[in-house]
Amino acid sequence: MSRFAYRPLAAVAALAILAGCATGKNKADTTYVATDVDTLYSVAKSRLARGQYKTAAQVFDEVERQHPYSVWARRAQLMSAFSYYLARDYTASIESARRFLSIHPGNRDAPYAYYLIAIDYYLQISDVNRDQKVTLQAQDALGELIRRYPDTTYAADARVKLDLVHDHLAGKEMEVGRFYQRRGDWIASVVRFRKVTETYQTTSHVPEALMRLTEFYLALGLPDEARKTAAVLGANYPGTDWYEDAYKLVTTKKPRDS
After folding, report:
1. Residue 51 CB-half CA count within 13 A
2. Which of 106, 112, 138, 201 is most buried by its number of CB atoms within 10 A?
3. What percent of the chain has pLDDT over 70?
4. What b/e string do you get for 239-253 counting C-beta neighbours within 10 Å, with b at 16 or more?
5. Do 177 and 215 form a contact (C-beta atoms < 8 A)?
């Protein structure tokens, strides 16, 4: 029989542990069924293959709980994080991946653990109309992966996703800036537009931000600053509608209604 051969009776015992955990606050919660590591790991892999991701993650957790010093415990931690990720329980996936990194920081699979954490945050990014805390967490996690393991395939994918994260954050700044502009609060709006041009220079929102800044300077009676900003827009984005609008504004010296 192979190392990962399926053992029906022991497997039933392993799953009984999970059943006990799901029964609520009673004696079953503390039921402990000792099961050999081979069987537990085999059951977890079987549930993963069947698409029972949450159950697979719980059995992988049980591998670590019952056999914390085995070689399979280390693998189970990472497989738990992966299974929770597939189950879309991103918080639990992050916790498992971080636990793996705290115990095995120099392990060869550490880049993948960092990647899982970053992806878990990335997949939770919400619409720009909502709070962007998780977007910032995704940005930090992707950046950390790139800094630590710049030459890995994980870092290559992280760079692409980081560009998308920056574009998302820039979009949020533009939304807030336009809101202040509609209220006539030019100072508050310009802070947002400048942040886009200074912090998110490679995003798709920069042309509009430069156009809005041109409007801002004209509204404050600063035509020279408006022309300089429009010139930057023309030099970098000459064929855009935003430049055409900015050019019209600085040549007529009339701010466009927002």
Report:
1. 0
2. 138
3. 84
4. ebebbebbbebbeee
5. no
Longest Cα pair distance anywhere in the chain, in angstroms? 85
How many angstroms separate the CA atoms of 14 and 40, rounded?
6
Tokens of 118: 């970053």
To the nearest 10°, report the CA torsion of 107, 109, 110, 114. Answer: -170
**Contact (CB, 8 A) for 142 and 118:** yes
pLDDT per position as a tens digit, 147-200: 999 999 999 999 999 999 999 999 999 999 999 988 988 889 999 999 999 999
CA distance between the termini of the chain = 74
Listed in sequence order, the residues at least 6 apart from 12 whose beta carbon sits closer than 8 Å to its beta carbon are none
Q: Which residues contact 134 (CB under 8 A, 6 or more apart)?
A: 121, 124, 125, 126
Helix intervals (H) in 31-152:
37-49, 53-66, 71-86, 90-103, 110-122, 133-148
How far does CA 251 lie from the centroid of its chain?
44
| CA pseudo-torsion sign 43, 49, 50, 56 | positive
Closest of 137, 68, 66 to residue 103, by C-alpha: 68
* H-helix segments, 200-240: 206-219, 223-236
